[in-house]
Amino acid sequence: MESPVPPYPPSPRHVPPELGRRPMGSRASRLSSLALSATGVFLFAVCPMLFAAAGLLCLVAEDLHIVLRASGFLIAANISLISLKSLLPRRLPLPAGATKLPLEQEPIALAFVDLVARDLGCFAPKAIVLSSGVELVLSGKRSLFDLVRPGRSELIVGLWLWNTLTLSEFQAAIARTIAPFSRGKFAGRRYLLRELLRLLLDGHDFVDEMAER
Known about the structure:
alpha+beta; Zincin-like; 2 domains; four-stranded mixed sheet; 8 helices; elongated
């Protein structure tokens, strides 16, 4: 049984072929953005191995004093463990008052988002999360494995947008938010690399979430 789908307004229901698929910026700027993001993620990925190797070198360096060898090993081992923790699946903290929208309560809204995603030719977010702000962003846990097989995100919608925008405005806003995944694998990977680098710097993993409780 298909979920009920709300009608689009007559004017924006005609979806132009290039909707969401025209990338912003020049090709050179997109390539440089991809290269910089990939470099940042690569440095995060190799950092634990580099410091682990440095710790082993301290242990086998027989020409150094035992105190220096022990101190170097402990420092390198601690940095290696800390940087290894940053590779756990991470996400940005949810906005204040965020609540996941149950399918049984708002099937039409979820079906509407799914319809917009199908018009763009990409996967729909797996859930809608309502917050108390004005944001409209994709969020979710990310790790290096997402570069191989991207997971589906959650769509965070601020209540101000939810209650204020018209249906056609909401359609346009959602299309702009999920557009990176409608422009092919290159644009999708570029978005994921930037998002992953942001999460490596500012995201929280399950250890951080347990510590905050």
